[in-house]
Design brief:
With 169 residues, the chain is an alpha+beta fold. 36% of the residues lie in helices and 10% in strands. The chain has two domains: 90 residues, Alpha-Beta Complex (Conserved hypothetical protein from pyrococcus furiosus pfu- 392566-001, ParB domain); 66 residues, no CATH class. Strands 1-4-2-3 form a four-stranded mixed beta sheet. A hairpin with a 5-residue loop joins strand 2 and strand 3. The two termini are 33 Å apart. One of its GO terms (biological process) is chromosome segregation. It comes from Companilactobacillus mishanensis.
Length: 169
């Protein structure tokens, strides 16, 4: 696996990228500034992005001239399409253990970028035994996909979930 630095102008985003990532660009740029490039952009043999669209946008925002790239030239067209989707989807499948997350965040200085804010985690004083919504199986997690065109309804559902120890992703 060979990573090479190439001109940002030689890389093209995939025009049919189904991932809407505008809200993640600023945080990704902060991460690149804080930690440098730790993960290259993956492109196909024509320098079209397979994975790393947000990193590419962040690099442009940072006015970088070159970025680290891995050319995945051994993948078939079908594999490229599938990898492009799988790379993003597999991250959506993970959930956070909020107690461990809070422990990790407590050990990091405030001026180091993590991408998390106070509102990203529920209060560490939340006592799971006090919640009428949790049963005996503390290892169970529930995931809810919710769509509405009503901002008022969304805000009410969000408040209810957060008030009861849940989190919105």
């Amino acid at each position: 696996m060979e990573i090479q630095n190439i001109s940002i102008d030689e890389i093209s985003p995939y025009e049919n990228n189904p991932r809407i990532n505008e809200d993640a660009v600023e945080g990704t740029a902060e991460s690149i500034k804080e930690f440098g490039w730790q993960q290259p952009i993956v492109v196909d043999k024509n320098n079209v992005v397979i994975v790393g669209h947000t990193r590419l946008k962040a690099a442009k925002e940072l006015k970088l001239k070159e970025v680290p790239v891995l050319v995945a030239d051994k993948l078939t067209d079908q594999q490229v399409k599938a990898y492009r989707l799988a790379d993003n989807k597999t991250g959506d499948m993970a959930i956070w253990d909020n107690k461990k997350l809070l422990d990790e965040l407590d050990g990091i200085e405030d001026d180091i970028f993590t991408g998390f804010t106070e509102s990203d985690t529920f209060d560490d004083t939340f006592d799971e035994t006090d919640s009428e919504f949790l049963d005996e199986d503390k290892s169970a997690f529930y995931k809810l996909n919710f769509e509405t065109e009503s901002e008022d309804l969304f805000n009410k559902v969000q408040k209810f979930i957060e008030d009861n120890g849940g989190e919105i992703k």
